[in-house]
Specification:
The protein has four helices and no strands. By secondary structure, it is mostly helical. Helix 3 runs antiparallel to helix 4. The protein starts with a helix and ends with a helix.
Length: about 90
């Protein structure tokens, strides 16, 4: 177990260590920003494809809160609250 933890830790610190040593252009920065957003979209869309209406409502609440308040924490709270309220009253 310790070996796996060590390898995981080294993999986690390798990315920032290597990127701190490299010069990045504006183009590379834009690519890295877009790549992180695309990973989040892929995770959400796959969860929605396998999920139920509750997940759709939770993601919709998060999206609306993000558009309205432009704050990720508020969007997170809105989505979590929508899922919890769904379970409490409709499940």
């Amino acid at each position: 177990m310790g070996v796996i933890a060590t390898i995981t830790f080294l993999n986690r610190i390798a990315g920032p260590f290597i990127m701190s040593r490299l010069r990045t252009s504006a183009r590379v920065e834009r690519f890295l920003d877009a790549m992180s957003v695309s990973v989040i979209v892929a995770l959400i869309s796959s969860a929605l494809a396998r999920g139920t209406i509750r997940e759709v409502v939770a993601v919709g609440a998060s999206a609306l809160a993000m558009l309205w308040f432009n704050n990720a924490i508020v969007a997170l709270i809105a989505g979590t609250s929508a899922a919890a309220l769904w379970l409490k009253f409709l499940a």
